[in-house]
Amino acid sequence: MGRHAQILRFGDFELDCENRQLLQHGKPIELGSRYFDALALLVARRGELVSKDSFMDEVWQGIPVTDEALTQCIRTLRRALGDNAANPRFIQTVPKHGYRFIAAMPQQADAAEPMARASRIAAACTLSGLVAGAAAGLCYGIIAGTGGGGQVLVLSAMVGVLGLLAGAGLGAGMAATVAWRQNADWWIVAGAALGGLATGALGNLLGREGVGLLSGVSDLYVTGPFEGAILGSAAGLASWAACTGQSRRVVLAAALCAGGTAGLLIYLSGGVLLAGSLQALELGVAGMQLDVDRIGKLLGEQGLTTTARGLTAVIEAQVFVLAITWGLLMAGRKSGKLDAPRGFEPR
To answer: CA torsion 113→118→120→123, rounded to 10°?
Structure first.
């Protein structure tokens, strides 16, 4: 069996032929020596019919055994894999001929692939954050700005930089976990949350200090680490969906749900996003050429009321998470690979 000396991955399982172990989520599953050889043979010949004679030659190596021995072997393998003979995911019976391994298996990545994957994630998130921020700043500048076209462009550029910072932080957090885990698994959510926490704190500090230097007001409550962590978690969840080979429709639906939930949680917890931060600037800094009540009126409210702040928080979070997720989907498409965790393939 020396020709199988590698790790073969399918579903939640890893077949380590060199160390003769079957692992599920990193935990070993006990298999007898003959049964392990039978599974290795099936997996190595994925998609091909493996006849009884092949099992006898390569697993039992010519030792005479009954048909029941092979039947019991396959039954044991199915039990270990959680498979069902009537509706197989892994081992398919070919009546009167043998068996076929039918599970999808990802291509084996080379040693440099995890770092390349991490770089793609970081770049996609950074660019997506910039685009989302610039678009949000432009939109709010047009709606709420009272200083003309120049102010609209300045606001778009400023919010674009904040979006770039947020996207870079999330991307760095997710990329770090991919590089560490050598794989895009659920730890990507934790990495995004930590990245959002760090950049939220940095953005809050820069914003408050910048406004303080220009106006003498330094006690404004603007978006900070709490909001960054919540948004990062939502973006991480959607990005994980993007990395598990789900259809684009499912991924984008997950992004909408995660973003909406994040925005609602931020609002209910007393946090603020962009509209709330602009309102704090308008109320706290004299001479700001802003009329944020226009945002609320566009939503059917009398101004930027409590309800309007909740709606804008939900919408802003959805737009940001959608942008990050779309960027990752596009990066995966252009690279010719979906950055999927081990055991998943694009559908």
So the answer is: -160
Radius of gyration for the alpha carbons in the chain, expressed in angstroms and rounded: 27
Taken in order 82, 87, 91, 94, the sign of the CA dihedral is: positive
Assess contact for 197 and 232: CB atoms under 8 A: yes
pLDDT in tens, 325-334: 988 888 766 5
Domain identity same for 48 and 150? no
Q: How many helices (H) and strands (E) does the chain have?
A: 11, 7
CA–CA distance, 344 with 247 (Å, rounded to integer): 12
CA distance 291 to 147: 10
Task: Tell whether 264 is covered by a domain.
Answer: yes
One domain, residues 248 and 130: yes
Provide the β-strand partners of residue 14.
9, 23
C-beta atoms surrounding 82 within 10 Å: 12
What CA–CA distance (Å, rounded) separates 11 from 90? 9
pLDDT at 207: 61
Q: Does 342 reside within a domain? A: no
Residue 343 domain-assigned? no
Nearest CA to 300 out of 311, 286, 316, 315 is that of 311
State pTM to two decimals. 0.62
Which two three-digit tokens encode residue 79? 């039990």
Domain housing 8: 2-101
Last residue of a domain, one of 72, 101, 130: 101
- Dihedral (CA of 258, 263, 265, 271) sign: positive
pLDDT in tens, 233-266: 999 998 888 766 667 888 889 999 999 999 999 9
Burial class (CB in 10 A: 0-12, 13-18, 19+), 132: buried
Q: How far is CA 17 from CA 43, 80, 182, 267, 303, in A?
A: 11, 16, 20, 52, 66
Assigned domain for 313 exists: yes
As beta bridge partners, residue 100 has: 49, 92
Q: Which residues are paired to 23 by β-bridges?
A: 14, 28
